[in-house]
Amino acid sequence: MAMFKTDPVRPPAYAGFEKPTPAWFEDAKLGIFVHWGPYSVPAWAEPIGALGTIDPEYWNIHNPYAEWYYNTVRIEGSPAHQHQQEAFGGADYDEFIDLWKAENFDADAVMALVKQTGAGYFVPTTKHHDGVTLWDAPGTDGRNTVARGPKRDLVGEFHDAAERAGVRFGVYYSGGLDWHFSDLPPITGKDDDIMVSRPVGKDYADYAFDHVADLIEKYDPEVLWGDIEWPDAGKPDGPKSMAELFRRFYASRPEGVANDRWGETHWDYGTSEYELGASSEHGTWENNRGVGFSFGHNRLEDESNSLDGPGAIRYFVDVVSRGGNLLLNIGLTASGEVTPLQRRVLTELGAWNSAHGDAIFGSRALPESVAAPSESPWTRWTASADGTTAYAIVDAPAGTVVTLEVNGATREVTLPERDEVGPAVVAPPLSA
Ligand code: GLC
Known about the structure:
By secondary structure, the chain is α/β, with parallel strands linked by helices. It has 13 helices and 15 strands. It is 28% helix and 17% strand.
């Protein structure tokens, strides 16, 4: 997918935004992502597997991303299309906006859960591909959560809660796709479809510009998390260009970071998603995924297609050991709650992080020449930022004696007792 950048191509208008990665982002390691929208009402997708492991032609018709419901139901013959007939009499997607009440939503309660994971930043969707904005965005003509459905400024509530909790705030914005703004047919198959079935003209570029400018002004985000692309007409420098948005963003947040999905313009870090986009996992990068196979809440998911606590911890540690950050997603229910399954995963991850954060937060990848990862037992390595300590994170029961190779020396280590679920952490000496 062209969404994932391999080689930085920086058009002249965007070259001036280059800067060293702010330390806070490299040190944070963990962010929490939230997908929430009218799609959380049907909350329906086939949990077929992880992105990057499924044939793209099969993917779209059986899309496991519940936030893609508006697209999937428009594909004749898709199981989602049939489900929409049976469960909702084929109702118009926009009816879900009014059915979405967010009646139990408490941003501080969500943020308390986020905070205890140890995450340094938090990124909610502000407009996903269905085009519904979670704040009173300019030009939306009432198609937003302030005028309809929840009747609340959800972006503002998340922002204020993050500020109170001392968690950095970012915004996800889909600039590439807006199924409401355009009349384009649903995306059905080939991998490249997504890049050609997107609005690219000046009308949409100006509309999206006004949205992101408003997000920057009202909520002062520290992470600009774009998705898919940016409308082509908005790329050349000018008063309503992506360059102008980056100027405003960095003027307000010199230490802010932007991901790599704002088209071939500028980015501070690369992204990969589930198993896709490994070519972006170098330099400063972030992998993102849901607890299950979907970002939006999906009623069809259960333990069998989701990470459990220990699985999420291993996934996180693996990313960190390779020098990346993890942006782990939860999908809120239409009423605004975190499901028990996702809550348990975040709680177990948080308990492990609070016991072993020294090996994780602010750490660096350890060169493989010093010590290499292994699958038996599962072992990953990190290093302290000053390079004086190497941490081995080993998934085996307490009391197991493991043999670790560090700088050519062999160390026998007995894994300690621990209260929390997840792997053990040991710090064998780096030199004799
Ligand atoms: C993809 C998907 C989307 C999800 C996102 C998260 O672009 O289209 O549904 O929001 O990535 O990385």
